[in-house]
Amino acid sequence: MSQKKYIMDQSAARVKLSRMALEIAEKLSHSDLPVVLLGVAPGGSILARQFLPLLQSHLPQVLDIIEVGLNKSLPEAVNISTNLSLTQKHVVLIDDVANSGKTLLYALKPVLAFQPASITTLVLVERMHRTFPVKPDVVGMSVSTTPQQHIEVETNGQEVLGVSVQ
């Protein structure tokens, strides 16, 4: 069994999330349309809850967080936990780790039916093993790993505590 190697601690995660909030705020500063965060459960939802106040300090029009449920064995069955329409809203889709791009692609599919004003994808950690044509727009950290290695984003249920490679 391989040993965990930490590549990001809690403090670094906070700095990365603050920087990503500024990046999103700059990108959306031209618009007064509402912004909705979609967190891919479970890790992306935790990240979205931590990210919300950071983004709201720059963009007051951030409305809410919506959780996106995705079963990786049946990725076409995506559940979006809201009755809120995403039409003419800026959508920020958040996940903790991007690997192949499959999760982001399937999470995006039902969002497109709403005809949002824009969609921005955000991940804390991007791995370089993309097999689907989805590249995150905003990335906290890009990591080159072997396909056998695993990235784990550790949380306490409310915020990121660290990121490790195993």
Task: Give descriptors for this structure.
globular, 9 strands, alpha/beta, six-stranded mixed beta sheet, Rossmann fold, three-stranded antiparallel beta sheet, 3 helices, 166 residues
CATH fold-level name = Rossmann fold
Mean pLDDT: 91
> Which structural class do the helices and strands define?
alpha/beta
Portion of residues in beta strands equals 35-45%
CATH class placement? Alpha Beta
Number of helical segments with 4 or more residues: 3
Structure notes:
The chain is α/β, with parallel strands linked by helices and 166 residues long. The protein has a single domain, classed as Rossmann fold (3-Layer(aba) Sandwich), CATH 3.40.50. Helices cover 27% and strands 39% of the residues. It has 3 helices and 9 strands, in the order βαβαβββαββββ. The protein has helices at 10-28, 43-56, 102-112, and strands at 5-9, 35-40, 62-71, 74-80, 90-98, 118-127, 138-143, 151-155, 160-165. The protein has a 6-stranded mixed β-sheet with strand order 4-3-2-5-6-7, sandwiched between helices. A 3-stranded antiparallel β-sheet has the order 1-9-8. β5, α3 and β6 (118-127) form a beta-alpha-beta unit. α1 (10-28) crosses α2. The chain is globular. The mean pLDDT is 91.
